[in-house]
Write a structure and sequence with these properties.
The chain has six helices and no strands. The protein is mainly α and about 130 residues long. The chain has a single domain (about 5-125), classed as NusB-like (N-utilizing Substance Protein B Homolog, Chain A), CATH 1.10.940.10.
Length: about 130
């Protein structure tokens, strides 16, 4: 990765790495030449229980295990950023929706709507 990645490209890299880590059930390889990527990967790995509890608490009629690997990765990245970074929730949610549209949605908008509802609920719950 010799070229400089935009923040969006770095988020996509985080999602891909979280997807791979989840599939392999190994959240130990967090190394990256980009501090942002490394911070998010390490943070998600360290705070996984809290993140998964927060996501699970806001999944209505769903469980975390029913989500696809890519959707879990999107949620974990977004929720980590919402709790532990200064990035505004609106930006985080918008990026998560764009990534969902590109990597998870089947063209009918259902998954984008689902991710939007869940992340909005989490945003509201975190403000309380």
């Amino acid at each position: 990765m010799s070229e400089k990645l935009t923040r969006k490209e770095q988020r996509i890299e985080v999602i891909k790495r979280l997807y791979e880590m989840d599939m392999n059930r190994d959240f130990t390889d967090c190394d990256s030449e980009y501090p942002y990527i490394e911070e998010i990967l390490e943070g998600v790995s360290e705070k996984m229980d809290r993140l998964d509890d927060t996501i699970s608490d806001n999944l209505q009629k769903w469980s975390l295990n029913r989500l696809t690997f890519i959707d879990r990765a999107i949620f974990r990245c977004a929720v980590y950023e919402m709790i532990y970074t200064q990035t505004p929730s609106e930006i985080i949610i918008n990026e998560a929706l764009n990534i969902t549209k590109e990597y998870s949605d089947e063209g009918d908008g259902k998954m984008v709507g689902f991710v939007n509802r869940v992340l909005d609920n989490i945003k509201i719950a975190l403000k309380k």
